[in-house]
Amino acid sequence: MERFAENLMYASRWLLAPVYIGLSLGLLALAIKFFQEVFHLLPHVLTIAENDLVLVLLSLIDMTLVGGLLVMVMLSGYENFVSKLDIDEGKEKLSWLGKMDSGSLKNKVAASIVAISSIHLLRVFMDARNIADNKLMWYVIIHLTFVLSAFVMGYLDNLSRKDAKKSL
């Protein structure tokens, strides 16, 4: 009975595979939205104000960072929790594949969230004259919360890695 339960739990990891495929559909939706923004920008590129151009470009950078985050979570999450990716010898392989454990993935996700938040905060500051002061304050507080959380997670991960090395 115990062996059956363990095998069932181990096999249930495959329930995550459709979730990772769903993330790839989210990546497709993000790519469509990205190019929609580019196509809206192009006819107006000569007449758009510099500040507005920078805001649109920051939005594109934001989407790119989210896309990279999706790829990182999809591939390393699948490889860590479902199955090793079997990539043919002749095909290009991302250098970080197979090297990112769940702890480092968590730290990369936290760092990406901080970067995305930073871009969003910069976008907000570029348009600060149209945003109430109390909203600006909350944007900064939320961003600082992300920064602090990422720092604490990284610090704790570093401590646990040092403890693991000492116990060996």
From TrEMBL:
Q: Keywords in UniProt for this one?
A: Cell membrane, Membrane, Transmembrane, Transmembrane helix
* Cited PANTHER family: UPF0114 PROTEIN YQHA (PTHR38596:SF1)
This protein is called: UPF0114 protein NG42_04850
Residue ranges of the TM segments: 12-35, 55-75, 109-126, 138-156
Q: Which domain of life is it from?
A: Bacteria
Return any one Pfam family short name. Answer: UPF0114
InterPro entries linked to this entry:
UPF0114 (IPR005134), UPF0114_bac (IPR020761)
One Gene Ontology term, aspect cellular component:
plasma membrane
Any keyword Transcription? no
Q: What is the similarity comment for this entry?
A: Belongs to the UPF0114 family.
Would the keyword Cell membrane be found if you checked this record's keyword annotation?
Answer: yes
Please state the protein's primary subcellular location: membrane
Localization in the cell: Cell membrane
What's its membrane topology?
A: Multi-pass membrane protein
Stretches assigned to coiled coil: none
Q: Which NCBIfam families match?
A: HI0507
